[in-house]
Amino acid sequence: MGVAMTGRTKPDSTSTYVRVAGVSNQQKPVSGTTLDGVEVAMKVIDCGLEELPTQSFNSLTVGTTATNLASLTTNKVDVRCSRGIQFKAASGNSGTIVVGGSSVAYSGTAANINGMPLAAGDTIFLEVTRLSAIFADASASSQVLHWIAY
Questions:
Q1: Ordered DSSP codes for 34-64
Q2: In terms of Cα–Cα distance, which of 81, 83, 95, 59 is closest to 131?
Q3: Integer CA distances (angstroms), 12 to 8, 9, 15, 56, 74, in order
Q4: Is the pLDDT confidence value at 27 over 80?
Q5: 8 Å CB contact between 123 and 87
Q6: H or E element in which residue 69 lies
Q7: What 3-state DSSP class applies to 145?
Q8: What is the pLDDT of residue 88?
Q9: Distance between CA 130 and CA 146 in Å, rounded?
Q10: Domain limits of the chain?
C-alpha cells in the first residue's frame, strides 16, 4: 500500500496530512518522532523500488581526462534514478579513479586531488540521481568503474 502526499494542510488545522491510497482515500495526520521530549523528524517508511531505472550497467572506462559519466555509457544516455548511484573501482585497476563534480581532477599529490579517490576495489555511494551530474578522472588510462543506480 502506498502513501501519496497531498502537500497541503487542513483549513481548520495547521497539521499536514496524507491520503492513504487503497484505504478509502482516508486522511491521516503526519507527525514527527519525539526524542527527549522534542519532536525532531518525520517518521518515514521506505518500501524500496519496484525495478531498477535501467537494465544496463555496463562498466565504464575512465581515462586521464575529466569526463561526464553519462558520456561513457554504451548508448551515451543519461540515467536518472530515485536514490543514488553506487560505484566500485575494478579490483584489477592499476591506478586511482577520482569521482566528483564537473571540476573533478586527479593530481599526483593527494593534497591536489579534487573529488573522492577510489583505489582498486574501493566503493562509494553517491546520493545523486543523475549520472550526467557525476564526473570522473583517473591517474592512468583505461581504469574500469562498475556502477549501479537505485
A1: EETTEEEEE-------SS-S-S--PPEEE-S
A2: 81
A3: 12, 8, 9, 50, 55
A4: no
A5: yes
A6: none
A7: strand
A8: 98
A9: 16
A10: 3-42, 60-149
Q: What are the C-alpha distances in Å from 136 to residues 46, 66, 71, 150?
A: 30, 5, 11, 19
Which three three-digit cell numbers place residue 89?
Answer: 573501482
C-alpha cell at position 90 = 575494478
Judging by DSSP bridges, how do beta strands 135-138 and 97-100 pair with one another?
A: antiparallel
* Dist CA 26 CA 149 (whole Å): 34
Amino acid identity at 57: F
pLDDT in tens, 66-124: 999 999 998 888 999 988 999 999 999 999 999 999 999 998 788 889 999 999 999 99
CB atoms within 10 A of CB 104: 20
What CATH number belongs to 60-149? 2.60.120
pTM for the model stands at 0.70
Rounded to an integer, what distance in angstroms lies between the CA atom of residue 76 and that of residue 45? 35
